[in-house]
UniProtKB/TrEMBL annotation:
Membrane-spanning parts: none
One family name in Pfam for this protein: LysR_substrate
Record's keyword annotation contains Transcription: yes
Protein name: LysR family transcriptional regulator
Cellular component, GO annotation: cytosol
MF (Gene Ontology): DNA binding; DNA-binding transcription factor activity
InterPro entries for this protein: HTH-type_LysR_regulators (IPR050950), LysR_HTH_N (IPR000847), LysR_subst-bd (IPR005119), WH-like_DNA-bd_sf (IPR036388), WH_DNA-bd_sf (IPR036390)
UniProt key word Cell cycle: no
Occurrences of domain HTH lysR-type (ranges): 3-60
Assigned keywords, A-Z: DNA-binding, Transcription, Transcription regulation
Organism per entry: Rhodomicrobium udaipurense
UniProt record similarity statement: Belongs to the LysR transcriptional regulatory family.
Top-rank lineage group of the source organism: Bacteria
Length: 294
């Protein structure tokens, strides 16, 4: 049987996610392409690797054996790249980073600009993911670095403090909430929201509403925090954005900023890696830069 590295990475992504759909996303493959690869792997080995059910997939005994060997092989590949990278002269390198919405929009532009300007031979492949997906992807070797909320399960990942991300409510200054007192998320659910069009942060907020047995009432979906703040200031509805974005926009608007009391609204972000010794020299340098806050 012949499996390539993409096969092994995909298989581990599916195992870690417990789902072919989410595993394909984490591996950067379409669902049809991922499904075909998995079928080909089973056909090549004449063995069943996954038991497919309505709630996801589980490993067979053969699948357990493959997962063990796949992790070993990918770990050895990471070590090889790291050791060879020490001898490379003048070659371009790419560091793959997965981060949540707040990190990408509010913190990383300045920090990445500093580091990339000092490392002209290094590129960064940056992708937005939810924190739980980031943890799985870094653990499986799909990303060298991750920036995630410490509220999620991170297993044996190595974590370093990165930033504190506070979510706040933005509304027009004449709104009933604009009295300066903190509010609970549950108290907002009767109102109409200006929401993000997509992204990990909006998924996180939507998940909190679902936990309360409801969904957000949406008036409009926008692609930027500035757009949400602008609409909120005009009285269109309320929005939830990072505090740093709200304070930046308030300098030129009439929005009110209201603190959310819910524990999930204050997220302590960390930069994470699987093992420092596995990192290539550029990835190790970026990890240290981000952990130091620039």
């Amino acid at each position: 049987m012949r499996f390539d590295l993409t096969d092994l990475r995909l298989f581990l992504a599916v195992v870690d996610a417990g789902s072919i759909t989410h595993g394909a996303l984490n591996a950067g493959l379409s669902l049809p392409a991922a499904s075909e690869r998995l079928r080909d792997m089973e056909a090549a080995g004449e063995v069943t690797l996954l038991t497919r059910g309505r709630r996801g997939v589980t490993l067979t005994e053969a699948g357990e054996a493959l997962a063990h060997h796949a992790r070993t092989i990918l770990h050895q590949m990471a070590q090889m790249r790291g050791e060879l990278g020490q001898y490379a002269q003048g070659l371009r390198a790419t560091v793959r980073v997965f981060a949540n919405t707040a990190a990408i929009t509010e913190f990383l532009p300045r920090l990445l600009a500093q580091w990339m300007a000092a490392h002209p031979q290094a590129d960064v492949e940056l992708k937005e993911r939810q924190s739980s997906e980031i943890a799985r992807s870094v653990a499986a070797g799909f990303a060298e670095l991750g920036i995630l909320s410490r509220a999620v399960e991170t297993g044996d990942l190595i974590l370093r403090p990165f930033a504190i991300d506070r979510l706040v409510v933005v509304a027009a200054r004449g709104h009933a909430f604009a009295k300066g007192r903190p509010v609970c998320f549950a108290d907002l659910l009767a109102h109409r929201f200006i929401r993000l069009a997509d992204g990990a942060l909006q998924d996180h907020i939507d998940a909190q509403a679902i936990r309360l047995g409801t969904t957000l009432k949406s008036r409009v979906a926008l692609r930027s925090f500035d757009g949400i703040c602008r609409m909120a200031g005009e009285g269109v509805g309320i929005g939830i954005v990072p505090e740093s974005a709200a304070r930046r926009y308030r300098l030129s608007s009439k929005i009110a900023i209201i603190r959310l009391q819910d524990e999930w609204a204050t997220r302590r972000l960390s930069v994470c890696v699987r093992r420092e010794c596995d990192l290539t020299p550029p990835a190790r340098s970026l990890f240290e830069h981000l952990a130091a806050g620039g």
